[in-house]
């Protein structure tokens, strides 16, 4: 098995591509702590590697964040070993697979929220995934779109520019009710 490793705009995050589905069409999932990772054997093993601080599952990739005081040469092969072993042994990705996320919004805004979701799914998510990350809608209230940035986008130095210049401008262009886009944890 050959794992492709790609750089992302965030120097502390690399994208690992195993050549097969990770989450597939089931969305994405992030692991911010070792406690979060307990629902996935692979994520838990990745978080056990010294200096790995965050793991993100995308459709066909895994983004891994390392602490900034360690070089990639010190952790890259350990990460590849964990991913390779996971796929070669055929383990399930999750121990428990009920991971639904709810979007908060007023029922009167349902049509606007549906348009926001459509733009995120068709135009924004694919572009963000190219850089090893993901974006999900968390809340819509009073013209403000609240999103969660995951994977390589979480903590990326250029994420603010992407959020305001790219995502916010696009949503405002297509949906006049949108006044601002904010990232939340």
Relevant terms:
three-stranded mixed beta sheet, 8 strands, 185 residues, single chain, alpha+beta
What's the layout of helices and strands?
Layout: E1 4-7, E2 13-17, E3 29-31, H1 41-47, E4 52-57, E5 62-66, H2 76-89, H3 110-130, E6 133-141, E7 144-151, H4 159-174, E8 180-183
Parallel strand pairs: 7-8
Antiparallel strand pairs: 1-2, 2-5, 3-4, 4-5, 6-7
Can you describe what's shown?
- By secondary structure, the chain is of the alpha+beta class.
- It contains four helices and eight strands, in the order E-E-E-H-E-E-H-H-E-E-H-E.
- The strands form two sheets. Strands 1-2-5-4-3 form a five-stranded antiparallel sheet, covered by helices on one side. Strands 6-7-8 form a three-stranded mixed sheet.
- The termini are far apart.
Give the tally of β-strands.
Answer: 8
Beta-strand level of the residues, as a percent range?
15-25%
> What is the rounded Rg?
17 Å
Content-based structural category: alpha+beta
Helix share bin: 25-40%
Amino-to-carboxy terminus distance: 35 Å
User: In what order do the strands lie side by side in the largest sheet?
Assistant: 1-2-5-4-3
**What is the arithmetic mean of pLDDT?**
88
Our count of helices gives 4
Order of helices and strands: EEEHEEHHEEHE
What is the 3D shape? elongated
| Main sheet properties | 5 strands, antiparallel
Quick recap:
The chain is of the alpha+beta class. Helix content is 31%, strand content 24%. β1 (4-7) and β2 (13-17) form a beta hairpin.
């Amino acid at each position: 098995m050959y794992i492709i490793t790609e750089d992302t705009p965030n120097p502390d995050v690399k994208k690992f591509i195993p050549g097969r589905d990770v989450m597939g069409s089931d969305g994405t999932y992030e692991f911010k702590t070792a406690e979060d990772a307990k629902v996935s054997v692979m994520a838990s093993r990745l978080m056990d590697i010294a200096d790995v601080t965050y793991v993100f599952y995308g459709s066909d990739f895994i983004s891994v964040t390392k602490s900034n005081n360690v070089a990639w040469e010190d952790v890259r092969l350990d990460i590849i070993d964990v991913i390779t072993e996971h796929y070669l042994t055929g383990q399930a990705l999750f121990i428990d697979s009920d991971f639904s996320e709810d979007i908060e919004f007023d029922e009167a805004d349902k049509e606007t929220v549906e348009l926001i979701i459509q733009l995120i799914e068709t135009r924004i998510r694919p572009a963000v995934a190219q850089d090893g990350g993901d974006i999900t809608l968390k809340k819509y209230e009073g013209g403000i779109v609240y999103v969660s940035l995951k994977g390589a986008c979480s903590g990326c130095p250029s994420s603010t520019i992407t959020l305001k210049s790219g995502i916010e401008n696009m949503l405002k262009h297509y949906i006049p009710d949108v006044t601002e886009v904010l990232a939340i944890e």
